[in-house]
Amino acid sequence: MPFAEGHYRWRDVNERFDPHNANALRGLAWLLSFLPASADTSATLAALVDVSPVHVEGTGPRNPRVANAGVTALFRVGDDAARAELRALADRIAFKGTLTQIDNAPAASS
Questions:
Q1: Where are the alpha helices (DSSP H) in the chain?
Q2: What's the pTM value of the predicted model, to 2 decimals?
């Protein structure tokens, strides 16, 4: 359910990540990398990387640090599904910092 926008200082509060929750989300992404590898985990992390650097009009990207945490977690998972997701993300992501991190992940080229 969307928030009522008149009470918040952000232009479109429903399109942004809350800064405090974003830090928790980064931690959860990192913790996922300690679980046994699964295709569901890799797909979830890839979805997080997909939506985090998306540009929100008037404010910039949602939260590139969350996207970078997802890339790090995918690299740490390291199974075939995670490597496939990293390769697919390299084709889809346009945000330069996250794309650089994906390109530098050794798992993307394996």
A1: 19-32, 39-51, 64-77, 80-92, 96-104, 106-109
A2: 0.82
